[in-house]
Amino acid sequence: MDQNKPDILTLKDKIITAFRPIEQLFQIMDSTSVDLYGELTRSYSEVGITLCKNFRQHLDALLDMQNGGSSDE
Predict the structure, then answer these.
(1) What distance in Å separates the CA atoms of residue 51 and residue 18, rounded to the nearest whole number?
(2) How close are the terminal C-alpha atoms of the chain, in Å?
(3) Cα Rg for the chain, rounded, in angstroms?
(4) Structure letter (DSSP) for residue 1
(5) Within a 13 Å sphere around the CA of 22, how many CA atoms are in the beta-carbon half?
(6) Which site from 16, 19, 63, 69 is most exposed, i.e. has the minimal number of CB atoms within 10 Å?
(7) Tell me, what DSSP letter sits at residue 43?
(8) What is the pTM of this model?
(9) What is the C-alpha to C-alpha distance for residues 25 and 43, in angstroms, rounded to an integer?
């Protein structure tokens, strides 16, 4: 079973790397000026950032289950 650990970590890294531009988009939206773009952009960013956090938590949980429950990261 230890042979699967590097594969799971590699998979997690690849998923997070592919997902990072989406997360960065929401972070950029969060830093936009309310005076120029209004409050709606900030509201969208809050939703996006929350979804990103939930995604990461679910990804960690799924990979931990696949890995046998150990979370040595």
Answers:
(1) 15
(2) 17
(3) 16
(4) -
(5) 14
(6) 69
(7) H
(8) 0.69
(9) 13
Sequence letter at residue 36? L
24: its two tokens: 């960065």
Alpha helices by DSSP H, the chain: 4-30, 34-37, 39-66
Long-range contacts of 63-67 (CB under 8 A, 24+ apart): 63/8, 63/11, 63/12, 66/4, 66/8, 67/4, 67/5, 67/8
Is the CB of residue 11 less than 8 Å from the CB of residue 73?
no
Vertex 27, ends 37 and 47: CA angle to 5°? 80
